[in-house]
């Protein structure tokens, strides 16, 4: 219980000042801390050859993002395949096969960190740092940059025609990375090292087991682990150094380390609510959004916590009665595993400190639903962007309900906007359910490790996780096959770029339109009633899309076990 | 909209960047990869290794003679009666192949595995199945969970004391010394490797040297007479 209090307190108490700081860091206005950070920022702009003062239209901004990401995917793909020939490889790990390497590159370039490999055994120190840590910084920064660009354009009221651009991508990225992410990650990395997370470039230790009757040698892999785990947790990334992620004692050694890592899951997504409130000046709107997110979050966490306190149905009468400890670490117990499980799926992080595959059916269903919704705080930047997408849909529905022409913040929502908004929302069930159906239709390709209803849930979970850019898994799934790698590559790309860039485009289109003055019939977007409507839209859209699949998977499994 | 804001927006929009060039994107990528992917890990890893040398190198455990016998963060396989056993591992307690079982509660393999483990424990500790704490029949998430619950350790005291020919109070005292997470955070757990190393340090089972200082030679007759 103390651990839970500490985690919530850290997020609440440090999240607010962090949000204020992020708003300042991303501002284009001069500030006192500029001199300090210019030492690093100016050389970056000079070496990259960019003019950070210039302004991009939304099209140029989006194109800059896409070009950077094409480069990143190719670079990471190359590093993974050639790691055997490259330096910083003390354990002599060979190159990855092409499809696993492609999946890994795309997975990390989309802030997903879905892993079809086991890091400590299949990646060199160079791959883990130069390729993976780089992406773990650049992808959350991209989400944050796009969010701020949208907030500047959509939320800040300006007359039509005065807004020429949405900001400068390289400026927003550099500010986010140098002023926010790097200092935070460095502090967390050192704190984690103090708790026992390895920080070393040495090869693995080889140790003979103590019991002389066990003639086995145990390997203890090391590496610059703490530096990666810090940004893995802070950047809604989730891809760990070791295969089973933060359940591994070397990656998450003590209760204090667990408190730090759990709080790191949500602190930036939470702080962004405050940052955007300050940047846009729409405090009531952001408070309303925060209230909806917090409600969803508390519901999800209580369901998972109570689910995992129940005994595992397979173990009845084989021991003293107890909670479901299968797949969980004793130093955390079920409550802290459940809290992590619900937060990591809400925030699109995807790191785990317990195996979701072995959660009780209701707990497993809740974390799956968190990923379908994906806007309960959500990934850095993209969580709020996804919420704006639902807000646009709710504004459309709400305006029609009160009999007005649909509008958003006084700008008319017309066919072009609504077509793209609907597409960005509807493509999710289409991709997840379509590919799941295709996969289970090919039993040889599915690779499910658990029989029956749970096998279907494994497949659903994998695609839901890929689309949500979450990265966690029901890890029993045999997913390192060309089918899974390539099907997930498509899901990852669509799930990342469409829901992120459509709202940017809509913001750009709306900014060019004339603002209608607010009248008596205008839908007040920051009212509790409208927030309720938005929450309702989110719930209804997700239930319509996914309830049948949930009935066939976790619900059927729960019913057959008697609860 | 006041005049100030208009002027400020106009100033911001002075230079409109017409296109996003490949050159900028790729140069930005290389600069950032060096800063974030090489310099940042190097600085934090070097600093961490310098500030916390023990922790940074994998929290190694040494026996009384200084030999490295493992890591306090990695469980080991124990089969001899002289040692406490840890939780079931889907990874054979190898940190190189870490893994959970990933078995669903609806999977019959999970019940079969737990049944076999429970029977083996009941036989070894001479208890009934319903006395076994649940952590001893559930595989951890990592496969290298170094801990068991204090109850799970207590269950094994009689067997270990008998096998080593020492009294149970001595073993219980060593369990208390191997307790971790006794502070404000977490709940107390027993580190199995540290416990077994402290047993070996104080009451060696070494068969080859047969040192005369050994408090009690471990033979079936010796343990029989202890009863």
From TrEMBL, chain A:
One of its GO terms (molecular function) is P-type potassium transmembrane transporter activity. It is a multi-pass membrane protein. The keyword Ion transport applies. Belongs to the KdpA family. Keywords: Cell membrane, Ion transport, Membrane, Potassium, Potassium transport, Transmembrane, Transmembrane helix, Transport. It is found in: Cell membrane. Its main location: membrane. The chain crosses the membrane at residues 6-23, 60-80, 130-155, 176-193, 256-278, 285-305, 371-400, 420-442, 483-512, 533-556. Part of the high-affinity ATP-driven potassium transport (or Kdp) system, which catalyzes the hydrolysis of ATP coupled with the electrogenic transport of potassium into the cytoplasm. This subunit binds the extracellular potassium ions and delivers the ions to the membrane domain of KdpB through an intramembrane tunnel. GO terms for cellular component: plasma membrane. This is Potassium-transporting ATPase potassium-binding subunit. The system is composed of three essential subunits: KdpA, KdpB and KdpC. It holds the Pfam family KdpA. The keyword Ion transport applies.
UniProtKB/TrEMBL annotation, chain B:
The chain crosses the membrane at residues 28-52. The keyword Transmembrane applies. Keywords: ATP-binding, Cell membrane, Ion transport, Membrane, Nucleotide-binding, Potassium, Potassium transport, Transmembrane, Transmembrane helix, Transport. The keyword Membrane applies. Its main location: membrane. It comes from the Bacteria. It is found in: Cell membrane. Coiled coil: none annotated. GO terms for cellular component: plasma membrane. It is a single-pass membrane protein. GO terms for molecular function: ATP binding; P-type potassium transmembrane transporter activity. Residues 206-227 are annotated as: Disordered. InterPro entries: KdpC (IPR003820). The system is composed of three essential subunits: KdpA, KdpB and KdpC. Part of the high-affinity ATP-driven potassium transport (or Kdp) system, which catalyzes the hydrolysis of ATP coupled with the electrogenic transport of potassium into the cytoplasm. This subunit acts as a catalytic chaperone that increases the ATP-binding affinity of the ATP-hydrolyzing subunit KdpB by the formation of a transient KdpB/KdpC/ATP ternary complex. Belongs to the KdpC family. This is Potassium-transporting ATPase KdpC subunit. It comes from Vreelandella alkaliphila. The gene is kdpC.
